[in-house]
């Protein structure tokens, strides 16, 4: 699926990244999976309400991409953004508290699942509107370019954003003005229940880079090091002032579109095939090849369990925003 060059880059990363770096990648993917499992449980128990879209299955995309960035780089995402927000370094406690609608949440309990936002971490938001983050990424890129800063913007969006005008307008402008933006399309084959074949005229989504005169590559989004390698290259290009890149990461969401979707539009066989490509299990095998033992990885999983448990406790025990502040930040005072 991925080009040979991408595979080669991934192999090289396996050899060149330190063991502690590789463990960081594993830890973050494990954190996102376990965090999302607990979110599903808390949703079922009524602790979390409203729309809620989980990222399980797609961890390698956020983790691989964000590992290739510096802390000061910007990330902008969609409504399926818990994973990106955690990978950008926002504390699991603050993310969980936001999902619980608590005042200690990253958006002070006002945003919920689809509207995580943390300027300090340079996590510039989840957006409920499909394709809504793309023009904002161009704006961020323009501000960086104008101020001659060294940062880049990493913009995640789904395959469902591709047929949107916003995607095409943004790519055109970013290419024309050589803005430092990395576009990462998470192609999980579905926009809600609609297959990409029924929505998009071209199934090799990375080829949408061509008319906009920018590089486009497809990577295996279930292989964290492939994503890492591709984003590293795109970030270097952006920082040099050469302009944006489009990366199509082929991936799969293990759950339905949202917590209220039983995903009856896809077969159990299809789900099984993708479960076998689980990015975390695959990376475990890779690490075993590098002689990282199963016990070390099990220990990381247990540490992550404790972090997630603590996040749930923190969220549950935190106070709700006071009713007196219900209109705060809604109207200009
Ligand atoms: C402009 C707009 N149109 C329609 C919707 C309804 N909607 C919400 S999610 C979604 C599917 C998007 O799929 P994709 O971009 O592939 O992301 P994924 O959920 O697969 O991560 C749609 C159509 C919306 N939120 N915004
Ligand atoms: Mg999709």
Strand/helix succession = HHHEHHHEHEEEEHEHHH
CATH architecture, by name, is: 3-Layer(aba) Sandwich
Class by alpha and beta content: alpha/beta
What is the CATH superfamily? Thiamin diphosphate (ThDP)-binding fold, Pyr/PP domains
Helical content class: 40-55%
Give a structural overview.
With 333 residues, this protein is an alpha/beta fold. It has one domain (4-318): Rossmann fold (3-Layer(aba) Sandwich), CATH 3.40.50.970. The chain is 44% helix and 9% strand. The strands form two sheets. A five-stranded parallel β-sheet has the order 1-2-3-7-6, with helices on both faces. Helix 1 crosses helix 8 (224-239), helix 2 packs antiparallel against helix 10 (279-289) and helix 5 crosses helix 11 (294-317). It is globular and about 50 Å long. The structure holds thiamine diphosphate and magnesium ion. The site of thiamine diphosphate has 14 residues, from strand 4. Residues 158-160, 188, 190-191 line the site of magnesium ion.
Q: What characteristics describe this protein?
A:
9% strand; 333 residues; Rossmann fold; single chain; five-stranded parallel sheet; two-stranded antiparallel ribbon; binds magnesium ion
Topology:
Layout lengths: L3 H13 L2 H26 L14 H9 L6 E3 L5 H6 L4 H8 L33 H14 L6 E6 L6 H12 L4 E7 L2 E2 L2 E2 L20 E5 L3 H16 L5 E6 L17 H8 L3 H11 L4 H24 L16
Parallel strand pairs: 1-2, 2-3, 3-7, 6-7
Antiparallel strand pairs: 4-5
Helix pairs in contact: 1-8, 2-3, 2-10, 2-11, 3-8, 5-11, 6-7
The protein binds thiamine diphosphate (TPP) and magnesium ion (MG).
Magnesium ion binds next to strand 4.
